[in-house]
Amino acid sequence: MNLLLPHKLMDFSGLIGRRQRLRNAIGLCLALGTPQLAQAGGSDAELESELQFLAAERHIVVTASKLQESVDKTVATTSVITQDDIQHIGARNLLDVLRLVPGLGVTQTMLGVREIEVRGVKTLFSDKVLFMLNGHPLDHNLQNAGSTWVYDDLPVDTIKRVEVVRGPGSALYGANAFMAVINIITQNAKDLNGLHASVGAGSFGAQQYRASWGKQYDNTAEAALHFNHTDTDGIGSPVPQDSMSIQGLESLAPGKSQLNEGRNDMEWQLGYQGFKLDGRYISKRTGTFVGAAFALSNRTVQNYEDYFIRLSRNWRFSESFTVDTQVYHDSFSFDNLLQLAPHSFGHVGLQNMRNGGEVQGNYQLSANQTIISGVSYNEDEQSDVTAENGSDPSQLEPTLPYGKSRKRTRWGVYAQDVWDLWPNLRMTLGARYDRYNDFGGTFNPRLGFNWEFIKDYSLKFSYGTAYRAPAFGELDLINNPILSGNPNLSPEQAETFESGIVTHPVQGLTAQATYYHTHISELISQVPAQTTFVQYANSGSMLSEGVELENRYDFSGSLQGSFIAANIVYQHTIQNNLAVADVPKARANLLLNWAFNSHWSLYGHVLIKDATGRGVGDSRPDVPGYAVLDMSMLGQHFFSKRLDVSFTVYNLLDKTYFDPAPTSVPGDYQQAGRAFFGHVNVRY
C-alpha cells in the first residue's frame, strides 16, 4: 500500500473517520434495538472490523519521516503503541508504556525523576531523547535539558498512540533527537465525539481523574479539551543508608523514600477554517527518592510548571502542494525547596521561555515521491535564576545564583526526499543544518532504503547523524564548589548505522531483527578542574551497538483479538574503552493477550532485565537481574460501548528488585513490590 502522503504530522482523519462511522452505526443499531447485533454473526463482524482498524493503526507511522507511511516501508526503526495496547496493559502513565518498547529502559534517580535509557545510553535528565506532544518538541527545560521533569508520569487516558523512532532524528527535528524521538499523540475532536470521563485508583494512594470533551461542527469548527489530575503517596521504599549516615553524620537514614507526586494538566485543541490553536499546561509537585545531595529527605518539595501554546495552519495550494505553518510559545519554570541534610536546605528557581515558528512545504511529485522542506527559528531565554540556603526553610538567606540569565537564538533549514524507485524499493534522503549564536552550526544528514527483495521479506538500511546542544546549566553552572560549567562547550555528536530485516512469514506473524551501531563523540562529561573538583567538558567518546529482535503473532478464528509478542535486546555500550555502568547487556519483554470474547481479555507481561555492572572504582557487586510479572484484566464496550473497566496487578509475584544507585546510596533504589490499579472509563 502506498502511503507517501504529505499529511500534517498528526492527521489520521481517514482512519479515525472510518472508526467513528463504524461506532456511530453500531450505536444507532443498538439504540434502535436491531436484532441482528444480538446474533453471533453480527458480533463477529463487528469485532473483525474493529480489529482490522486496530491492525491498520498499529502499522502506520508519521514521526519517522513527517509523512504518513507504513511501518513496514519506513527506513527508520519504529514502534507504535496504540490506545488499544495502552488499555490492555493497564498503564498508569507514560513510563508503563515505554517499558514495553525494545531498546528502551526506565530507571530511578535520586531526585525522583526517571531516566529513559535508549540502546544502552542514559543520562540523569534523559537529554538524548526528544519527547514531542502532537509533533511539538517538549525540551522546554533549558537549564538541564530533557523532558522527563514533567512528562515521565504523564497520564495515558487521553493518549491515542505513542510513536517511538529509535536512532538519530536530527535531520528532521534538530536538537536532542539524538538516540530516539518519542511522539505522544493525543485524542482530538474526531476521536472524542462527546464527553469522556475516567477514574483510576490503586496502591500507594494512587488516584487518577480525567475528563475530556470533543465535538466537530458543520462550519468546520472543532474543539477538544482534556483535564487530568493524578496523585500518589509514593512507593515508600526503604533507604537503609545515605551519603550522611555512611560518614557517621546526622542523618534521616534508615528511613523511607518520600516520592509523593501530584499533577494537574489541561490540554486544548481548537480549530476553525484550517487554523488550529493547541497546547498543554502542567502543574506538577513531587518529593524525592533520596535527595539532591544523596541524603535522605522528608521535606523536599519540587514544584514545576510547564506549558506551550501553538497556532498552526495547513495551506493547500493544490492536490500536490501544501504548506504547514506554525508559531508557538513555550514556558518551563521550577520553584524547589531541597533538603540537603537534616538541617540544611536550599531553595532554587528559574524561568525558561521559548518563542519560535516553522514553515514546512510538502510537494508530492508523484504517487511514489514526496519532498518536504522547511525552515525554523527559535529564541530561548532563561531568567529569574534564584538561590537561597539556610538551616530553617522558613528563614532562608539569598545566596549567589547557580546560573545566569542567558539568551540563545537558533535557526534551521531541512529537506527530505522519500521516493519509491520501484514498488518494492523505498529510498529516503534528507539533511538539516542548524545555526546557534553561542556555538555555531551543525549539519546532520540522513539516508536509507527499504527493499522488499521477496514478497513479505524486506531489508532495511539507514545512516544518520544527530546532535545534542549544550544546556544552559552545562555552559553556565557557577557558584558550585564541586562542579562548574564551561561556556566553550560544543554539541555532542552521534553517528549511527542500522540494518535489519522485516518479515511476515505466515499470516498474522511479524518478525523483525535490527542491528545498530552508534558512535558518540564530543561527549559532554565531567573532568577534573582547577577551581572546582570537576567541570563540564567535551571529553571522550561512547560506542553503542546491539541487536533488537521483535516478534508478534495475532491469532484469528475463535481466538481473534488474542496475540503473543516478544522483544529481546542484546546491547554493548562502552565509554572511553570501558563498559558503561548501570546498563544491562540484555533486556526482554514477553507479552500475551487472551481475548475470551468481544468484551473480556486477559493480558500478561514479563519484563526480564539482565544484571547491571558498577562503575570504575565501585567495588560493590553487580545489581542482580530480575523478572517481573504484570497481569491485567480488561472489560470493554459495555452498555452500548460506553463503559470500559480494567484491573491490573503489577509485580504479581512480589519480586524484590533494585535500580542501580551511586556509591553515596549503598543500598541501591528498591522498587515497588506488588501493586494494584483499577480503572473505569465512561463515554457519553
Q: What distance lies between the first and last C-alpha atoms, to the nearest angstrom?
A: 36 Å
Report Rg. Answer: 25 Å
Helical residues, percent: 10-25%
Count of alpha/pi helices: 9
Percentage beta strand? over 45%
DSSP strand count: 40
Index terms:
684 residues, mainly beta, 22-stranded antiparallel β-barrel, 5-stranded mixed β-sheet, 9 helices, globular
Structural write-up:
11% of the residues lie in helices and 53% in strands. Helix 1 packs antiparallel against helix 2. The chain is mostly beta strands and 684 residues long. The longest helix is centred in the first third of the chain and has 20 residues. The strands form 7 sheets. It has a 22-stranded antiparallel beta barrel. Strands 3-8-9-6-7 form a 5-stranded mixed sheet. Strands 26-30-29 form a 3-stranded mixed sheet.
Describe the secondary structure blueprint for this structure:
Elements: H1 13-32, H2 40-58, E1 60-61, E2 69-70, E3 77-82, H3 83-89, H4 94-98, E4 104-107, E5 115-118, E6 129-133, E7 136-137, H5 148-151, E8 159-166, H6 170-173, E9 180-186, H7 189-192, E10 194-202, E11 206-216, E12 222-232, E13 238-239, E14 255-256, E15 258-272, E16 275-288, E17 302-316, E18 321-341, E19 344-366, E20 369-390, E21 397-398, E22 406-422, E23 425-436, E24 440-454, E25 457-468, H8 472-476, E26 483-484, E27 492-503, E28 509-521, E29 524-528, E30 534-538, E31 542-554, E32 563-575, E33 578-579, E34 586-595, E35 600-609, E36 626-637, H9 638-641, E37 643-650, E38 658-659, E39 669-670, E40 675-683
Parallel strand pairs: 6-9, 26-30
Antiparallel strand pairs: 1-2, 3-8, 4-5, 6-7, 8-9, 10-11, 10-40, 11-12, 12-15, 13-14, 15-16, 16-17, 17-18, 18-19, 19-20, 20-21, 20-22, 22-23, 23-24, 24-25, 25-27, 27-28, 28-31, 29-30, 31-32, 32-33, 32-34, 34-35, 35-36, 36-37, 37-40, 38-39
